[in-house]
Amino acid sequence: MIRGRAASWAFWLGLAGITAVLSLNGKEIAQATGLSWLTKYPQAWQLHLDRQISAALKWLLEEATFGPFQFRDFTRLLSALIEAPYTLLRNLVVDGFAWGRGQQAVPILPPMAWLPVILGFGLLALRLGGARLAVLVTAAFLYLLLFGLWQSAMVTLVSVVIAVPLGVLGGAALGILAFRVRWIDRALRPVLDLMQTVPVFAYLVPILFLFGFGPMAALVATVIYAMPPMVRITTIGLRGVPEEVVEAGRMAGCTRRQLLWKVQLPSARRMMMVGVNQVIMLTLNMVIIASMIGAGGLGYDVLTALRKLDVGRGVEAGFGIVVLAIALDKLSQAAANRGPRDPSGGSWLYRHRWILAWAAVVVASYPLAMAIPPLAVYPAGWQLSTGGFWSAVVSWINLNLYDQIEAVKVAALTWVLVPVKTFLLGIPWAWGLVLAGTIAGGIGGWRLGVMAVLMTGFIITAGLWPEAMITIYLCGVSVVIAMLIGVPIGILAGQNDRAYGVVTLILDTLQTLPSFVYLIPVVMLFKVGDFSAMIAVVMYAIVPAIRYAAVGIRGVDPQLVEAGIVSGCTRGQLIRKVKLPLAMPSILLGLNQTIMLAISMLVITALVGTRDLGQEVYIALTKANAGKGIVAGLAVAFIAMMSDRIITAAIARRTAARETHA
Amino acid sequence: MDRPTVLECRNVWKLYGPQAESVLSRHGGAPSPEALREAGIVPAVRQADVTVAKGEIFVIMGLSGSGKSTLVRCLSRLIEPTAGEIRFEGRDLLKMSEAELIDLRRHKMGMVFQHFALLPHLTVLENAAFPLEVQGVDRRTRLDRARQVIELVGLTGREMRYPHQLSGGQQQRVGIARSLIVEPDLWFLDEPFSALDPLIRREMQDELLRLQGRLQKTIVFITHDFDEAIRLADRIAVMRDGAIVQTATPEELVLRPATDYVAEFTRHIPRAKVMRLGTAARPLIGSDFAGDLPATALVAAVADRIEAAGKPFRVIGAAGEVLGQVDARTIVDILIGRDLPA
Fold first, then answer.
1. Which residues touch A450 (CB under 8 Å, ≥6 apart)?
2. Which of A251, A266, A343 faces B76 most closely, judged by CB atoms?
3. Last residue of some domain: B211, B240, B269?
4. Does B159 map to a domain?
5. What's the whole-model pTM score?
6. Chain A partners of B157 at a C-beta cutoff of 8 Å?
């Protein structure tokens, strides 16, 4: 075994050595041998898949017909189906109803007053989660009102309210189909994998192309983005219904349909509510990002504030997103955790007393708000603003801490970021191909090796090798930093109940925040560039690093810890020799998650000016170049999938090795 | 057996693994365990024969992995057996269509599960009414019926609770109520009391005997607990490695175990608890008797009387004939396991 281990060490060291030599001297070697095509992929060899995809989409949109229908009719129908309820709700809450168009429009009904909305949500929270939740939710909405974010928030909320039912119902339907029909499950799995790793921007591009700029495209993208977890959780939930319960249903004489609707779905309810919560959070995340393609709302406020360098407004709107996210998260969690309904008894009126009272209060508050205008539209003069304060804070920091911040930034750039970047960019593409295949093959077997070679080959032939390397460099550095900070925090938090409670609370809150929010403070303090991107990615991706480490430490069998103590371990030895090795599988899972989050965040940091694949997607988005966007998006997805498979294989190997030893 | 047969299964096999059916037919329908292992097949049930008569409690006893749960699922066709024949009230169960099977389960069969298998989103009352709900019985009728079965299992007053608000024993009472609401002819109980605490388990066994005294169902009862088996059973089938080792009354199992395996189970069972006077009786010697006792009485039940009497009792058979006598000495012999009459 020792010989095998030594050989394996030599193999990996050798690989690293060759890589170093090739990376640092690649150019010279290439010039000396005249094989410069090995380092810089010749443009003439590019496959231009992007153009073909663009052409195919164009054909689909302009010429494709299914019988008497054009494909365009289909997108229009879909668009109209979503547009009708969206417009209705938007008019009701945000714009008001009017007769006619443009200047001649005659208002018929003003937009919904804020009072009924706040009352409605507040009472809902009271019913679902008690007084504490009611206070929280009401405070969140009051914040939006007092800081003049009401209209934007309502635009965002309307998108969420329309997209969530579509995502939930669509996801549940697909999940049920996958549960009942085997081949659908098999076909759906890789698609879901891909959908969850393709960066969000890459969704936007083709959808923009098919549906045009505006709220519809944003909504369609949102629904597609938010659906996969619902599909998965539905299938998992249905599979998780105890076999005995299903048998009880069958013995009661259920038909197949009765079994699904009366036994399996109700039993999976709890699990599916977790999915609903996820759909809501992902929807909010996407609605914010989709501001960029014309959805408007809070995300748009942040974006314009950032562009104008209006620090105060950006922070306020960003905080608006945060409170909305927290309110929606807590509301949906409270709904999920509620037990089954009250035992039904009494009359119809009695059974529905809550919903009736709720409706009565909301409706009654409407004329009240109409009678007293400030209760309908909050007067601009009464709005609070902390904009001046935030601007002052940032300018104070820039004035007084500029040197320190700059020093850290420069040090990080000179000693870490730039060297790593140069090293990775120096690797010739041809060796990169070999490297990908060898690493993947060495860890996960020849199948994984072949997959890695094919995926890397795709990236290279698309002419995206340098961009891919920048992606890997930014992501790699960020992940290493996130792990270096996160794992020790997790280990410490995992050993103390109180610390664990606090950390969990913070992590839960951080996880509800849309990724976009992380950019705001970073840009304000560090301006744009790789360093800012790295900080944002670390902040976003550190959550799983901490969580999995803490969970892993907590999961260690207390008996083993006691065994360590009676063996005379010091505290340090206890951690190093007992807890850490046992928590390792969990920490590695955390690493995997951290990488996934880092990649997804990296794409969003394209907004602060990185030069990676994310930027490619973003450029494609602004130019509405669907092919380019899809190819770059796939490249990101492939990098994510490779790292996921390799780490999963590494964990499996570790476990397998341990089991054969035992 | 003079009572009519309700459920009869012949030569039932359930094999898990690749091409189980062809392996079975290749070996003439009765492959040896070695042949099955070679083919990579796990035999869950091997060549099982079961005959259950109307009104009897038929217990299938075996340790975990012995195939008892699989067998009862074959009998209720929750699982398709690989081979064999199962007849329920003379009809071929395995040839029934899905619709016929659903109809049968709706009216003729009930089943109680080890982990209760209650629906978490329904109240006690609604859970009990569930089989009627899927039949499309209107709400008022089915809830009225449910109230009756809830009363039958002694849960009146808890109709509006949810399963998670009940103790394990109470939950299983709901499970029993649900399985009884359609007034089934055949009642399957799959380890119904195994998940309960020992004291509750005993209480539930008494409850079952009480219910059976009233309802006279035909019962197939699964357990891994031999004490439970002899307490409840009219007849017991002992299973091991998927095959039925012996089918007999508790008394026969204890007195004449077919294999060492069965003997191992029965060794610690006090004979007085399974032995009946008919078996214990010795030839008549004198003519001075304390009285008459029926041959079906359990030794343990009458031991005190016999001991106190000081004189032997006559043992009377079903037709009124005198089978022999028992005295205090007989009782002592049985209790200490000495020199048993064959």
1. A437, A441
2. A251
3. B269
4. no
5. 0.80
6. none
